Amino acid sequence: MAGNQGADDAGGIRIAELPAHPFFLATLFQPEPQGDGTRPHPLITGLAEAAVRHAKSAL
Prior knowledge:
Elements: E1 4-7, E2 13-17, E3 25-27, H1 42-58
Antiparallel strand pairs: 1-2, 2-3
């Protein structure tokens, strides 16, 4: 697989990204489901920022 990936202790892939894609990140975990609600997780912020950049470039 091209790109970056993270594995668990047993070697199973748990996170992967495709750097050439505007925003592709696959995870097998939910970021900060029990957060305090004051700040979004960086994965969520990154997705929102990528969506805005993509929308602006499509204009």
